[in-house]
Write a structure and sequence with these properties.
Bound molecules: guanosine-5'-diphosphate, magnesium ion
CATH class: Alpha Beta
Shape: globular
Number of domains: 1
Strand order of the largest sheet: 1-3-4-5-2-6-7-8
Radius of gyration: 17 Å
Strand content: 25-35%
CATH architecture: 3-Layer(aba) Sandwich
Helix content: 25-40%
Largest sheet: 8 strands, mixed
């Protein structure tokens, strides 16, 4: 059964960050998506000012063959619903982060989760790119702006980002970056890439109305 799990880094988080800063002028909803094991939970965990809420389920024999463990053999849980965290950027904009599984069997949840989101950061693992195809099929169906971050694991091959665009058959103007989901600063930079793109898209849509 799915459960809400507590956070092992809880004690490290700053008490003062528990409340949204009074300097915040704008709050936006962001999705963090990608296939199983790509680093969604890790990224939200590394950047969140609040103890992230996550609903996960232990891997069971029933999930064998459904969620591939190739490349992430040490992983013992799979997200079944979502991760939720919060990060304030530049003191005046707060991002509410919703980690959403990209597997096809969760697509029914997508419409609800995407509602009100300014954009999605899609994480990819270049060691198993084919597992991202379903996520990008979903992005194509949705009109949510997105940026792509290659999550770099220790044995990730060094593939230029423009080759990743080609391999994933993405539009050539897709904002691309790489990150290390376990590293806070690197994860924040990936989120900034998305926010800049999504806010640019929102301004453009506003100007065209
Ligand atoms: N070395 C390394 N391991 C990572 C990185 N990101 C995620 N992992 C590990 O990969 C596994 C899957 O990550 P997780 O965040 O649970 O993936 P999710 O299914 O997308 O939420 C976990 O064991 C993480 O510790 C990374 O940037 N570097
Ligand atoms: Mg997860």
């Amino acid at each position: 059964m799915a459960s809400v799990v507590s956070d092992h880094r809880g004690a490290d988080r700053d008490e003062a960050d528990r409340y949204v800063s009074p300097t915040v002028r704008q709050s936006v909803k962001i999705l963090v998506s990608g296939p199983f094991g790509v680093g969604k939970t890790s990224l939200i965990d590394s950047v969140s000012e609040i103890v992230p809420l996550r609903t996960e389920e232990q891997m069971t024999r029933q999930s064998l063959g459904v969620d591939s463990l190739m490349g992430v053999e040490r992983k013992t849980s799979t997200t079944v619903a979502l991760d939720f965290g919060r990060i304030t950027l530049g003191g005046d904009i707060v991002l509410y982060l919703y980690g959403t599984p990209g597997q096809r069997r969760f697509w029914d949840h997508w419409a609800g989760l995407a509602e009100g989101a300014i954009g999605a950061l899609v994480l990819v693992d270049t060691r198993r790119l084919e597992e991202s195809f379903e996520v990008f099929d979903q992005m194509e169906l949705s009109d949510t702006p997105f940026a792509v971050a290659v999550n770099v694991f220790p044995d990730t091959p060094d593939i230029p980002l423009d080759q990743v665009v080609v391999a994933l058959d993405l539009p050539t103007d897709t904002p691309m970056t790489s990150c290390r989901a376990l590293d806070k600063e690197s994860s924040i930079q990936a989120l900034i890439t998305l926010v800049e793109h999504a806010m640019g898209s929102a301004r453009l849509a506003g100007a065209q109305r």
